[in-house]
Amino acid sequence: MIHSLFLINSSGDIFLEKHWKSVVSRSVCDYFFEAQERATEAENVPPVIPTPHHYLLSVYRHKIFFVAVIQTEVPPLFVIEFLHRVVDTFQDYFGVCSEPVIKDNVVVVYEVLEEMLDNGFPLATESNILKELIKPPTILRTVVNTITGSTNVGDQLPTGQLSVVPWRRTGVKYTNNEAYFDVVEEIDAIIDKSGSTITAEIQGVIDACVKLTGMPDLTLSFMNPRLLDDVSFHPCVRFKRWESERILSFIPPDGNFRLLSYHVSAQNLVAIPVYVKHNISFRDSTSLGRFEITVGPKQTMGKTIEGVIVTSQMPKGVLNMSLSPSQGTHTFDPVTKMLSWDVGKINPQKLPSLKGTVSLQAGASRPDENPTINLQFKIQQLAISGLKVNRLDMYGEKYKPFKGIKYMTKAGKFQVRT
Amino acid sequence: MSSNSFAYNEQSGGGEATELGQEATSTISPSGAFGLFSSDLKKNEDLKQMLESNKDSAKLDAMKRIVGMIAKGKNASELFPAVVKNVASKNIEIKKLVYVYLVRYAEEQQDLALLSISTFQRALKDPNQLIRASALRVLSSIRVPIIVPIMMLAIKEAAADLSPYVRKNAAHAIQKLYSLDPEQKEMLIEVIEKLLKDKSILVAGSVVMAFEEVCPDRIDLIHKNYRKLCNLLVDVEEWGQVVIIHMLTRYARTQFVSPWREDDGLEDNEKSFYDSDDEQKEKTDKRKKPYTMDPDHRLLIRNTKPLLQSRNAAVVMAVAQLYWHISPKSEAGIISKSLVRLLRSNREVQYIVLQNIATMSIQRKGMFEPYLKSFYVRSTDPTMIKTLKLEILTNLANEANISTLLREFQTYVKSQDKQFAAATIQTIGRCATNISEVTDTCLSGLVCLLSNRDEIVVAESVVVIKKLLQMQPAQHGEIIKHMAKLLDSITVPVARASILWLIGENCERVPKIAPDVLRKMAKSFTSEDDLVKLQILNLGAKLYLTNSKQTKLLTQYILNLGKYDQNYDIRDRTRFIRQLIVPNEKSGALSKYAKKIFLAQKPAPLLESPFKDRDHFQLGTLSHTLNAKAAGYLELSNWPEVAPDPSVRNVEVIDLAKEWTPAGKAKNENPTKKFYSESEEEEDSSDSSSDSGSESGSESGEEDEEGDSSEDSSEDSSSEPESESGHQSDTENRRAAKRNSKTKGKGDSKDGKKENEKSKTSDSSNAESSSVEESSSDSESESESESESESRKVTKEKEKKAKQDRNRLATDASLLDLDDFNPVSTPVALPTPALSPSLIADLEGLNLSTSSSVISENIGMISSKGNKSSPSKECAKKGQPRSAAEGRPHS
């Protein structure tokens, strides 16, 4: 399956290579560089590149290309999904996944990669097991290790790998037993010129942070499970139980994990919490244009909208912009033509607005499209779909855990066409 | 830390020039890093010293630095002797790093690598399963041909290991050995065959992977394991699921008949599927009658469905392609929702999924129509995603939604991403040809675009308009005139060529303009692109034929220019045209027909999706993504006309019938008490009858034996949830029962004792089994309604199964290290009996769909356990399946 892995940074240096079968020369990456050059932008590099003897499958995350080399037919999603899992694991281990961090921890990275694949076939991809095999580096442990000469490699063997709940490590102990669940919903929407919704969907996830002693068996029930008609689960969730009772029943992994993700599609009406009023016009006669946007709350269920950021990619012909915001700060990068306005909180009494003029390149013709406005925002304590957790019960252990649930709504890919 | 500073030294010491030099040389040969060679030599000296030292910390430091070198692709092979010495180190981290090193360089230093082999051989005998497994892993990763026999031996031994984890690693080792020495194929197939029978969820994925790599054509090995694999599927780890699903898709296409002929008989299918084996037999005999789905076919489709909710995109895609390729068309619809959900994922996942949707949406529009809006393009999407989405939107366009789509396309055309805008124009063209109602609207829209400021947009519009006009025999003189004017401003060669072609084709409709265009072109001929030159020649020829009075000289001038062109295509064309159109004495018979040749009615081009021809590749494969056969691609065969004998999968038929015509219902009807007593009496007869019924006596003893063991395995899968979710009391029961069976010896003859045993335990299990009934009743309600008439039969079968289960349990106990499961099984003990229904549902949830029935059966089995299990247990210990004689003591 996966023959080799190359990590390539944005300037085109191969800074790590790992082979699971016989060694593949790194010259194979030349084909990748070619494709990269052709694509101009990193995100346009095709994820699958055929070469005479190999196939290069890559993912691009954190400004690093993870390029897997394969030789024979394999479902491409298999490799891509695995590479993403590798990135997630690195992130889990080191907090961030960046070139310097990987270089600093090259030994741990190597050990982890060694465990994740055997002969190119995934062996241990659950972070709980991996962490049992190879302890993630912490500052404390590094210090202790250098003094005592002990190691990062776990000396007990990973029993989890053999168990029927491979995602949970055994012998977990906490003094404070707690289980937190975050219900995070993202609204993906396209709003057209006149403010009507073209398409809107809600993408929700329930992320959990469970720190419970022993082998707890949890059930999570919802007030309105009918909302969740399109879900995907962490492997720990029992399918059957969900199908018959609409209850999430699971033995959780230890630590952070994504319990469930769901999709509420456009068919159900999606409440749009903000609106954007815009007036952007370029005139042919002068090289000046008018620019004015106002952001306001719409259906927020009485909650405040925070963390509003407006970004917009201006047409190439724009030379500069002189704008004044009623609140927050704005920047315009004349090279990338990217306008960004950090609004902050929306006060319904005094709507934030950004007004000013746009200067166009002299002689350049009027741009024929108005820029699209991308919006980011957050609403705490609200799940816009109306999903509500009813209760969380624990079986199998005696103690009383501390339970917490948080709701949040965010903008996903939220675009306003102008 | 040290590796860190080392890395820094490396860079600063070497400097950029050497870094580059190394880069370049390493592309030629990985070992020839001249630039750094001298400095490496020195550094390697002190690494050697560190490795020789007595202190573990120094060794560890050295190993870390070496691994750092390997990671960067630097050559560290000369340290081999020093490193190998540490292979037996007590320190686990050193050991692991040595392994990393060894696997990387053993191929280059074969002789020295042999030094390490004995260490692994010793470790292969270690009492700890994890050490055995890792020894096998490293041993098999060392690609040294000399040790092939040793590896073969190790694999064979490991394949019979008691620990499923070691067996999993054996399955991995098979692939490694095969790639090292394909000569071993036959022997390896034997091991694969053995491991395929394994019933552990740990092994299933890995061994199927090995099967796919070593002997994908030996589909006969799968028969006996097919049902087991289907039943295990939900519990296998996600990567294994992908491999198994792909393999089973291929399998299904060779073994079942097409369900696509008529989909309306669905009700019937369901029915026959729940009915028992004798009806199946009938069915196989006469295939001609209305299609009925093979129950095994149905089993696969049904057991993969929950996996659509996997978090792993690869699993979802695998199930989607399975449904696409083997399910009845009416049922494939359920995959669209899941696929659309994947579109939220990373761009790479989106890319692959969109490609597959594009292929699907050509053939079955209806599947994705409800999700039309999910394919709307966002300005932030990467271009490749945008074009794929467009592709799908085009495929989905129909009379009903075209107006919405066109409005959407209007925004896309104005996009700043010009490549995308151009693709949109193509799309509009395709919609226009596909949906005749909007052709005129599209055309006028495209004509408007001709006045766009962006050249790419205009050029693309010209090309598309040309295609559209060609389709609609011309009442569009105006548009052509308009386009002729554009010729002055437009510079994109394709567009110019298109305009010229269009004018040439319609030269009789624009008699005034055409010659003038030719005049202009003659002027600029030399500076045109080759593509345009060819069209100028064509235009000249056509005008010469229709309007020679005005254009004769011009054409000759152009032909003269073409004669001396640098491009031989153009010179060729010129010569050809001259011979054809200019009358001279040498010109052959053809020139009479020149006009017909040049101005023939040309068929309109078909604007087709580029994904049209991809459907012959299995969806979700690399080959499909590339639209070219990748190495090792396994063709998906066409459905067979007549299904091969389904009884090859049989043996299990009894047991399938049992699993499906579930117990829950049988119990509802006969009170448990009665069930036991009755079946006890009838045991002998039922046993023999069901045996002969399903196996129809035609099978050899050997087959029988295989069948038995695979029966065992499919049952194992169903017992899994017990150990998983750990019904404590239940486990205890099992233990007790196990103990009993151990002490018992051959219990077949001791009927009296058995009777006692039974009555004792059945009491305790009654309570449980009743609770099982409750909860299973709703999930199994389907099946209940069906096999009413069969209840009696079922009880018989159940009894037999109970017997098998007894055997199975004993086997299980020795094969799986139950202690490993212990920590898991304890916690789920029920706080209150009131909760038990939910717990049972848990058990179900964790496992296959049919588990509930089997759970109850297991409980039943416990009650009557202990009469006959030790013989099979002994066999299992030796890693052998039960012999035929033992398998059928009563027949």
From TrEMBL, chain A:
Chief site of localization: Golgi
InterPro entries for the chain: Adaptor_comp_med_subunit (IPR050431), AP2_Mu_C_sf (IPR036168), AP_mu_sigma_su (IPR022775), Clathrin_mu (IPR001392), Clathrin_mu_CS (IPR018240), Longin-like_dom_sf (IPR011012), MHD (IPR028565)
One GO term of the biological process aspect: endocytosis
Any Gene Ontology CC annotation: clathrin adaptor complex
Coiled-coil regions listed in the entry: none
Domain of life: Eukaryota
Topological category with respect to the lipid bilayer: Peripheral membrane protein
Classification via CDD domains: AP-3_Mu3B_Cterm, AP3_Mu_N
Keywords: Cytoplasmic vesicle, Golgi apparatus, Membrane, Protein transport, Transport
Domain MHD, first and last residues per copy: 176-417
Subcellular location: Golgi apparatus; Cytoplasmic vesicle membrane
Family to which the UniProt record says this protein belongs: Belongs to the adaptor complexes medium subunit family.
Name recorded for this polypeptide: AP-3 complex subunit mu-2
Originating gene: AP3M2
Automatic annotation (TrEMBL), chain B:
Region entry Disordered, spans: 1-27, 268-291, 664-831, 860-891
Domain AP-3 complex subunit beta C-terminal: 812-856
InterPro entries the UniProt entry points to: AP3_beta (IPR026740), AP3B1_Ser (IPR029394), AP3B_C (IPR029390), AP_beta (IPR026739), ARM-like (IPR011989), ARM-type_fold (IPR016024), Clathrin/coatomer_adapt-like_N (IPR002553)
Compositional bias per record (Polar residues), positions renumbered to this chain: 1-11
Residue span(s) of domain Clathrin/coatomer adaptor adaptin-like N-terminal: 44-582
Compositionally skewed regions (Basic and acidic residues) per UniProt: 268-285, 666-677, 724-735, 745-761, 789-809
Low complexity biased stretches: 687-699, 762-774
Top-level taxon of the source organism: Eukaryota
Primary localization class, coarse: membrane
Keywords: Membrane, Protein transport, Transport
Annotated compartments: Endomembrane system
Domain AP-3 complex subunit beta 1 serine-rich residue range list: 671-783
UniProt key word tRNA processing: no
Gene3D superfamilies tied to this protein: Leucine-rich Repeat Variant
Membrane topology listed for this record: Peripheral membrane protein
Biased amino acid composition, Acidic residues: 700-723, 775-788
Ranges that cross the membrane: none
Family: Belongs to the adaptor complexes large subunit family.
PANTHER family: ADAPTOR COMPLEX SUBUNIT BETA FAMILY MEMBER
Protein name as it appears in the record: AP-3 complex subunit beta-1 isoform X4
Organism, scientific name: Equus przewalskii (Przewalski's horse)
Higher taxonomy: Eukaryota, Metazoa, Chordata, Craniata, Vertebrata
